[in-house]
Amino acid sequence: MVEHYYRNVHAVVFVYDVTKMASFQNLKTWIQECNGHRVSSSVPRVLVGNKCDLVDQIQVPSNTALKFADAHNMLLFETSAKDPKESQNVDSIFMCLACRLKAQKSLIYRDVEREDGRVRLTHQPDPKSNCPC
Ligand SMILES: Nc1nc2c(ncn2[C@@H]2O[C@H](COP(=O)(O)OP(=O)(O)OP(=O)(O)O)[C@@H](O)[C@H]2O)c(=O)[nH]1
């Protein structure tokens, strides 16, 4: 059954609760499981700390989460599903993922040139890109 979640996956969002250290510590297990299902390293992954509106109950400091995100090559978003004004909102996570996926597609379909049977990457970063991340 779990296999279905990983088949043809395009992006992975790891979510923890900033008010529960255990949920942050469990991320390692989730990442291992994801890797165990051979999710390609080209599939974008983001880390999301939710419930950041509960400022008095925070157990996972932002810098701890940021180090973890960096170590696993992920962007970190701290969000609140309850209060969109708090920090980054949930929409921006999906905008970021959409942007990354679109950029990858452009690389594959637009920027690969075939010359004399050889593949050459010609991608240049788009200065007009309004990607939020
Ligand atoms: N304050 C606050 N509450 C939230 C937030 N997101 C979810 N909740 C609340 O947390 C409770 C659990 O939400 P669920 O969507 O059921 O999440 P869950 O992962 O199944 O449950 P938990 O592990 O208990 O968080 C509900 O009462 C939600 O209203 C948030 O960003 N801020």
Automatic annotation (TrEMBL):
InterPro entries: P-loop_NTPase, Small_GTP-bd, Small_GTPase. Keywords: GTP-binding, Nucleotide-binding. One of its GO terms (molecular function) is GTPase activity. The keyword GTP-binding applies. It holds the Pfam family Ras. The keyword GTP-binding applies. PANTHER family: PTHR47978. Belongs to the small GTPase superfamily. Rab family. This is RAB33A, member RAS oncogene family. It comes from Sinocyclocheilus grahami. The lineage of its organism: Eukaryota, Metazoa, Chordata, Craniata, Vertebrata.
